[in-house]
Every structure is written in structure tokens, then in C-alpha cells.
């Protein structure tokens, strides 16, 4: 029998969804091997008893490389730039992430100064060539440098790429990995464009080695990767623009939410082993942002500008906080209890995994309070409660420490949800919360009560839901142009280029980065069918975001972008139901402030339409659901929880 395989590698677990040609779903969840994540994929696929015809994959490899994960060394990367702009990536925007911190250090430069090469060429802001690149000069300078990858970012190349393209032809004699800004980030702002191009170049050897190694071991040549913009790309696109894989894994969860419940307004909440992510879906559509910073600091879900490497590329709009099942609980110098940002990951993992971890985590706290059972993955993984108690006791009374730590984690995750709702001008009480990830359903109702959400949805296979999202995603390819002169004509030009490249396109989605004249930054909006209505859409978003509009000010469209969408056949996911409505056991659980004798059910055995009133625990293969008092849960394709 033929099958499709979706693979999502997280910081703690690697998730596999296997979909047979007749629609049967099977799942595998194993601990991630951070030193060799590809080995886990190869071992699992070899053991499958079906003929694999397609593999779709989400990875955190690009992010981990920029965060400095062991065994992921950034290769020596060179930069060719316009004469006089050698230090652009070091000068940056002069942002100080911590204004009064005299000891703040800038992010380590990916390209050392001796590998930054100035080329005597020049194009002006209108795209006119003032000085053509001298190929002999390029050859003379690059032949002497020793680097594995090279980036090229010339001034105003987003308007006219002529000099960059000529340079690329010379570089092909000396380098395998070449990244030019007019192909990677054809947008204004030389610092952000150069930074994006450098990061893309630095990631090319790492991502190429990883993906090619996986592909060589697969029994099929149909191998696709989730991009940060929420669609699948083929391996050639991923190898040429690995910068678009940075938020590959988190994007898959939002896509799963949008595809699974396309007619609902949803807050997507994904809590895994390392982090928790929140995003918004409105009528099946998710927000896109073109600004991102990787490898820097995050403060309560906000990326601290100037602390990392800026990227200009489309990303699903997400807020991410260091609050996952493996997040470490500790005390600071003032003896205050803290949660995160460090995670125990998969190796050694939480103390209760009994793999050598000695630092208590959120998973240990949930276990000690009875919210987790002592076996996971359908009984395939044992948790050691006594070891968790011993570790938590080093911080104080283990039960009090656990309760306070979970409260702190919930507050942190609630901030992430407010970032993508309240701070975007949206009222979270008008949304349903769809909670997934291995740890998400344990915390969902606590977040709902904190934020004022009235309806919570736990989808099928919640602990592997992001992997499921890979099977629900369409192909999505992007093209962009800056400072369009004739909006409709320029959109058509981009669409025609994508058709020429892809041959088949089902439909296009248009976006524009818009601002009032005189503003420094733009808002990304989805362009309506009638392009003359752009101003109205922009001002609606400006009002929701900033609380005001400037009706007397002209608007300016800085960059337009088009996504070409090729539909995939959506699989029909039919969860299994049982006929057993009795709890499997009664367990003491600290749900509010009291220990309560709590009924524990097995989701796979529950009949469709069965209703459970809290307090209750619903266990399943990939996750555990906590039903609080005053809430009830209805068993359907998803488990729907509402306040009574």
C-alpha cells in the first residue's frame, strides 16, 4: 500500500504522520536526536510497511544553526558589496536593544571584516548604471579569499540587478554556494537586504548537506519542505533560498489550524517541548509579516530589535515564547522562582524522562500535580514521578514550586496570545482557541480563563498536529518587486514570471507593503481584487494597529509580492472513536488550588457525541487534555470545550 509521510522535527520530539492511500492515519513520536536529526528520519522510514510516495518535512535546522547549536557551525562566508559599504552589516541601524546597558554586545558578525570585499561599482536609486562592475576586479579579489559561501549585495540592486548578475557569473568559477540580494531579497533598505542575503549564503551549505542527505535515503523523489510563509516548496527552492526555512516548523501549526477549520476565527496555540507559539487565523487566512529577526533575544514574545540578524522575507505572523514542556524551572540570585528561557530539550530532557536530566521542567511540574499520567505515548514511554519530586524539592516544596511555575508559564504564554490579538487590534474573546502540541492541551483552559476565551478546540492528533499541517498545506512560491509604477501591470508581470517558472498555478495571492508618505516602516496587507481599494484596507489595518489614520496623507507602496499557489489534494482525516464511556481510573489532580479526585479517560476509546464535565483528564497517544471545573468537553472530530 502507498503512503505519504509528514515529518516535523521539534526541539524535544520528532513527529511522524503516515497517511495511507485509503485515508488511514498512523502516528509515530520519538525523541529528537539533536546531534543528528536526519538519522531519526532515516530509521523510521526504513521501518515503515508501506510504499512511501511522498515526504513532506518541517525543520528547525536553520534557526538552530543561527542560535549556535552544537555540531552546527556557521561556514566561512564572504560578502561582496559596493565600494564604501563594507561595514554595513556591522553598522546596522544602531539600535540598542537595552538602552542603558553599557555591557550589551552586538550579535556576532557572520562575515568577519577580512571577508568583506568592496567592489567599485554603482547603480543609482532610479536603476541607472553609473559604474558597471569590472569582472576582472571581481575575479582578482575573490580568487584570494577562502570561504565556503559568498553573498553579494550591491546598492540599489533591487531596482536593477545587472551588476549582481554579472558578478554571480564570475563567482560560479570559485564557489558552489552563491547568494545575491536581487534574487533573495529584492527590497530597499541596504542593511536588511544585505543581512538577509548573508544569512541565506551562510545557511546554504548547512541546509544543502542536511536536505540532500535525507533525500538520498528516501525511497521517493517527491520531497517537499515547509517554508516560513506557510506553504510547501520543492527541494531546489529550499536549497537556493534556505532563509525561508527559518520558521518552517512553527508555520506548519498555523497552516494545520487554517486548513482544518477554514471557516472559523482561531487563535492557534502550539506548545511543544521547547517553546510555545501563537498565531491568528481569520476565516481560513493567516497574517503574513515581512519583518523578522533571528538569533536574537525575545522579551515576553517580542523579538528585541537589534539583538539578532534582521531578515526581509515573508513569514507567518507568530509570537513565540520560551515555555514548553522541557522549559527549566529555576531560582535567580534573589531566590525568586523563574521559568525559562533555557530548555532541557530531548537530551537529557526533563528529570522524569530518567535520561540524566537534573533540572526540573514544566513537564516534571505537570507530572507531580497529577495532570500528566506516569506513561506517555500509549504506554510506550515511562515517566518517573519520584525523580521529578526529588528535583523539584531542591527548589522548595515540590507541589508549591510546581503550581507557581505553571502559573508563571501560563502568564508568559498568555502574553504571546495577546501579542497576536490585542496588539493587532483584535479581541481574543471573539476567537476560539485551537490548542495543540504535546503540552498545549494541558494548559489550554488556563489560558482561556486568563484571556477571556469561551471556546477551546483540541484537534485530532494534537501532539502531532503540526506534522498533520504539512499534509494539509499547498505549494506556495513567492516573487516581489519594489516601488511599482503601475500596480496592476506590475502584479501581472510577477504572476507571469511565476507561471513561466512553475508551469501550473491554481491561483495567486497578492500582498503589498504600504505606508503613509514620510513614515519609516510599512504594514503588510493582502491586496483586494480591486487594487483601487488598497488605501481602505491599509487604513483599516493602520487604525487597528496604531489607533489612528492620517486621511490627509498620501500612501506609498514600497514593495509588492505575489504568492503562486498550487493546490494539493487534501487528505480526509477521520479520527477513530470507541464505545467506552467509563473512566479508566480516578487520579488525584491539583486542578485549581485543591487536590481533586479526577476521572481519567482515554480519548481513542470515547464514543462520538460523549460529553465530559470537568474536572477531568483525557489522555491520548500524543497529548493529555486537562478539563477544568466549570468547563465541559464534547467528543467530536475535535474535542470542543466550552464554559458551562
In summary, what is this structure?
With 644 residues, the protein is α+β, with helices and mostly antiparallel strands.
Description of the structure:
By secondary structure, this protein is α+β, with helices and mostly antiparallel strands. The chain is built from 16 helices and 37 strands. The strands form ten sheets. Strands 13, 14, 15, 20, 25, 26, 33, 36 and 37 form a nine-stranded mixed sheet that branches. It has a six-stranded mixed sheet with strand order 3-2-1-4-11-12, sandwiched between helices. Strand 14 and strand 15 form a beta hairpin. Helix 9 (248-260) crosses helix 14 (465-472), helix 10 packs across helix 12 (398-420) and helix 11 crosses helix 12 (398-420). The longest helix has 28 residues, at 190-217. The relative contact order is 0.11. The model has no long low-confidence stretch (mean pLDDT 90).
Q: How far apart are the termini?
A: 46 Å
Number of helices: 16
Fraction of residues in helix: 25-40%
Strand elements, count: 37
Overall pLDDT metric: 90
Low-confidence stretches: none
Please state roughly what percent of the residues sit in beta strands, choosing from under 5%, 5-15%, 15-25%, 25-35%, 35-45% or over 45%.
25-35%
Question: Quick one: biggest sheet?
Answer: 9 strands, mixed
| Secondary-structure-derived class | alpha+beta
- Overall 3D form: globular
Q: Radius of gyration in whole Å, from Cα?
A: 25 Å
Amino acid at each position: 500500500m502507498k503512503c505519504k509521510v509528514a515529518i516535523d522535527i521539534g526541539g524535544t520530539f520528532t513527529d511522524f504522520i503516515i497517511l495511507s492511500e485509503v485515508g488511514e492515519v498512523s502516528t509515530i513520536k520519538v525523541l529528537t536526536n539533536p546531534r543528528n536529526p536526519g538519522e531519526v528520519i532515516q530509521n523510521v522510514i526504513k521501518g515503515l510497511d508501506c510504499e512511501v510516495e511522498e515526504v513532506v518535512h518541517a525543520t528547525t535546522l536553520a534557526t538552530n544553526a543561527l542560535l549556535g547549536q552544537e555540531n552546527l557551525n556557521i561556514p566561512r562566508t564572504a560578502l561582496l558589496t559596493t565600494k564604501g559599504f563594507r561595514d554595513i552589516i556591522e553598522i546596522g541601524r544602531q539600535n540598542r536593544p537595552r538602552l542603558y546597558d553599557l555591557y550589551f554586545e552586538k550579535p556576532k558578525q557572520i562575515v568577519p571584516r577580512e571577508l568583506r570585499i568592496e567592489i567599485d561599482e554603482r547603480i543609482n536609486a532610479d536603476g541607472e548604471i553609473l559604474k558597471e562592475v569590472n569582472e576582472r576586479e571581481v575575479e582578482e579579489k575573490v580568487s584570494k579569499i577562502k570561504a565556503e559561501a559568498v553573498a553579494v549585495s550591491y546598492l540599489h540592486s533591487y531596482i536593477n540587478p545587472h551588476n549582481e548578475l554579472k558578478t554571480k557569473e564570475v563567482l560560479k568559477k570559485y564557489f558552489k554556494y552563491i547568494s545575491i540580494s536581487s534574487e533573495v531579497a529584492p527590497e530597499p533598505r541596504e542593511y536588511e537586504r544585505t543581512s538577509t542575503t548573508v544569512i541565506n549564503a551562510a545557511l546554504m551549505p548547512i541546509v544543502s548537506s542536511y536536505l540532500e542527505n535525507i533525500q538520498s535515503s528516501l525511497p521517493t523523489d517527491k520531497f517537499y519542505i515547509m517554508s516560513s510563509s506557510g506553504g510547501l516548496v520543492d527541494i531546489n527552492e529550499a536549497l537556493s533560498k534556505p532563509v525561508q526555512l527559518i520558521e518552517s516548523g512553527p508555520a506548519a501549526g498555523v497552516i494545520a489550524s487554517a486548513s482544518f477549520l477554514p471557516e472559523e476565527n482561531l487563535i492557534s496555540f502550539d506548545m511543544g517541548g521547547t517553546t510555545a507559539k501563537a498565531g491568528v487565523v481569520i476565516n481560513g487566512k493567516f497574517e503574513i509579516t515581512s519583518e523578522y529577526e533571528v538569533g536574537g533575544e525575545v522579551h515576553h514574545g517580542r523579538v528585541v530589535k537589534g539583538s539578532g540578524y534582521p531578515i526581509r522575507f515573508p513569514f507567518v505572523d507568530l509570537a513565540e515564547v520560551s515555555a514548553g514542556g522541557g522549559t527549566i524551572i529555576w531560582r535567580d540570585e534573589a531566590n525568586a522562582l523563574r521559568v525559562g528561557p533555557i530548555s532541557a530539550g530531548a537530551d537529557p530532557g526533563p528529570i522524569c524522562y530518567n535520561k540524566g536530566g537534573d533540572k526540573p521542567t514544566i513537564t516534571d511540574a505537570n507530572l507531580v500535580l497529577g495532570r500528566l499520567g506516569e506513561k506517555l505515548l500509549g504506554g510506550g514511554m515511562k515517566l518517573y514521578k519520584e525523580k521529578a519530586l526529588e528535583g523539584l524539592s531542591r527548589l522548595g516544596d515540590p507541589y508549591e514550586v510546581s503550581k507557581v511555575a505553571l502559573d508563571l508559564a501560563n502568564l508568559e504564554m498568555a502574553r504571546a496570545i495577546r501579542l497576536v490579538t490585542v496588539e493587532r487590534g483584535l479581541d481574543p474573546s471573539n476567537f476560539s482557541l485551537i490548542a495543540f502540541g504535546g503540552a498545549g492541551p494541558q494548559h489550554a483552559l488556563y489560558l482561556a480563563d486568563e484571556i477571556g476565551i469561551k471556546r477551546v478546540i483540541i484537534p485530532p492528533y494534537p501532539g502531532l498536529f503540526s506534522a498533520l499541517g504539512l499534509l494539509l498545506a499547498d505549494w506556495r512560491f513567492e516573487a516581489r518587486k519594489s516601488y511599482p509604477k503601475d500596480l496592476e501591470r506590475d502584479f501581472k508581470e510577477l504572476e507571469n514570471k511565476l507561471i513561466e517558472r512553475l508551469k501550473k498555478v491554481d491561483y495567486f495571492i497578492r500582498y503589498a507593503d504600504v505606508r503613509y508618505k514620510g513614515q519609516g516602516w510599512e504594514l503588510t496587507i493582502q491586496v483586494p481584487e480591486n487594487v483601487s481599494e488598497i488605501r481602505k484596507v491599509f487604513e483599516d489595518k493602520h487604525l487597528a494597529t496604531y489607533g489612528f489614520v492620517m486621511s490627509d496623507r498620501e500612501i506609498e507602496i514600497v514593495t509588492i509580492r505575489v504568492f503562486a499557489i498550487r493546490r494539493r489534494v487534501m487528505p480526509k482525516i477521520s479520527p477513530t472513536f470507541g464505545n467506552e464511556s467509563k473512566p479508566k481510573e480516578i487520579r488525584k489532580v491539583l486542578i485549581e488550588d485543591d487536590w481533586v479526585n479526577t476521572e481519567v479517560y482515554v480519548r481513542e476509546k470515547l464514543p462520538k457525541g460523549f460529553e465530559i464535565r470537568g474536572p477531568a483528564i483525557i489522555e491520548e497517544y500524543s497529548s493529555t487534555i486537562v478539563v477544568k471545573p466549570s468547563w465541559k468537553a464534547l467528543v467530536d472530530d475535535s474535542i470542543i470545550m466550552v464554559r458551562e
